[in-house]
From TrEMBL:
It comes from the Bacteria. This is AraC family transcriptional regulator. PROSITE patterns: HTH_ARAC_FAMILY_2. GO terms for cellular component: cytosol.
């Protein structure tokens, strides 16, 4: 079962370049197991497996890892070549410096530059030339891929102190809370990520055979399925589990399992841009969406599985999460949506 869901916004944003260049994006969606009808629902979400497949299909079909949004094409295999070059680096700092050297070989350049200060380091986006990025997907992807690749190579999340963007807060800005897990700043001088200098000396722990396995689904998986195992959000998701038919653990128990006080845990969740209630709500939402894709389950069965004793309460909650009833959502997934009601 896929852990997370991805907002409709990112599905449409990822295809913006393909649409402009005249590709058949409906065919791409169907091949990824996503009904184009589902995207007519404003708050629709797809599971991370579907989103990962869609990105792989689009990259392959377009032979462009910038998905038609960059100042030039990045032919398929560019990211894999960069990974092959950085896997032998001793530390995270060496990884980012070598990745910068590699991406500077292409003109116009699309890269991230490592700038170190007395205590903090910044990864600053450097894009030359004109880009077609109406929904900011290219710029977001560069930040996410470089950050998560580094975290994967050193086997621990590089904790971010700040994420900055040189553009106004977009309409989907709320989604950024769950992408970056740190304070956000828009209309900044740069688009950049800031982290503590101590991560620069983190050793690369991955071996060359691991990179081959990793590249079978990356960078798509880096965008669709972040490793949250070392965030408090991810650990709480793991402790809650997926069986909502039994009473959920309370916050004090969760805090004791994580060897911290409830006050500290609340503060840490606030730093990760979330709360215990939101984690529970989003887990329920994602689980409900997963079960709606299983036609053998009735909507009443699903209500029970996600912890609602009254189907009517489930209907209300689901409509709040997605803007439509569970029945309308299921029709959209099946490609038989007649209204958005």
């Amino acid at each position: 079962m896929s852990d997370l869901t991805v907002s409709r916004h990112f599905v449409q944003a990822a295809l913006a370049g393909a649409i402009r260049l005249g590709f058949d994006t409906d065919a791409m969606l169907r091949e990824a197991g996503i009904s184009p009808d589902l995207l007519r629902i404003e708050k629709a979400r797809v599971n991370s497996d579907q989103f990962s497949r869609l990105l792989q299909i689009a990259w392959s079909r377009m032979n462009d890892e910038f998905l038609g949004m960059g100042p030039r094409r990045a032919r398929a295999g560019t990211f894999a070549t960069m990974c092959a070059l950085v896997i032998d680096c001793p530390t995270l700092e060496a990884v980012y410096r070598r990745a910068w050297q590699f991406s500077r070989l292409f003109e116009p350049m699309v890269s991230m530059e490592l700038i170190t200060g007395p205590q903090n380091t910044q990864l600053i986006t450097r894009i030359e030339g004109d880009i077609y990025d109406p929904h900011y997907f290219l710029r977001e992807s560069i930040l996410v891929i470089w950050h998560r690749l580094g975290s994967w190579l050193v086997g621990q999340p590089v904790e971010l102190k700040k994420a900055e963007f040189d553009y106004p807060r977009p309409a989907h800005g709320d989604e950024y809370r769950h992408i970056f897990h740190c304070p956000l700043a828009f209309e900044s001088e740069h688009t950049a990520l800031t982290f503590d200098n101590r991560f620069l000396s983190a050793p690369v722990i991955r071996a060359r055979p691991e990179i081959h396995q990793f590249l079978k689904t990356s960078p798509a998986d880096l965008l669709s399925r972040p490793d949250e195992s070392n965030t408090f959000t991810g650990q709480i998701r793991g402790l809650i589990g997926r069986d909502f038919s039994r009473p959920l653990p309370d916050f004090d128990w969760i805090a004791s399992e994580l060897h911290t006080s409830p006050q500290t845990l609340r503060r840490r969740l606030k730093q990760e841009n979330t709360s215990f209630q939101e984690i529970k709500d989003l887990l329920r939402r994602d689980t409900a969406i997963y079960y709606l894709g299983r036609p053998e389950l009735s909507i009443n069965d699903i209500a029970e599985k996600v912890g609602f004793t009254e189907p009517s309460t489930f209907h209300r909650a689901f409509k709040k999460w997605t803007g439509v009833t569970p029945g309308a959502y299921r029709e959209g997934e099946r490609g038989s949506l007649s209204t958005q009601g």
